[in-house]
Amino acid sequence: MEPIKPIKSEQEYEMALKRLEGVFHAKPNTPEGDLLEVLSLVIHEYEKKHYNIEPLSAIDALKYEMAEQGLNQSGLAQRIGMSKSAISEIINGKKQMSVAFMRFLHKELGIPATSLLA
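Above: the chain sequence. Below: its structure as tokens.
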């Protein structure tokens, strides 16, 4: 078995992904499970450097979730108990999100807190 080392090129990254596929369903605390864990770590480090995806802004996350859940401004306003105009002002950046509104977005719509607090 080839030793695991840091990934330094796109070719090594592709090879690591192929190795990962081979042990993807490995059980924990087995040699294959250990290989899966270590490969995941080195792949994650490479991806952080070369494919880092910044979290969405709070407004972009809200727009995305509204689209995913088929909500328009009226539907969101009704669901949270706010006016449509207040929702519109938030979406257009004219009004700040309150803590209660962010809490609702996190708990009810599943928007990550990291996006809401960014």
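The radius of gyration is 21 Å.
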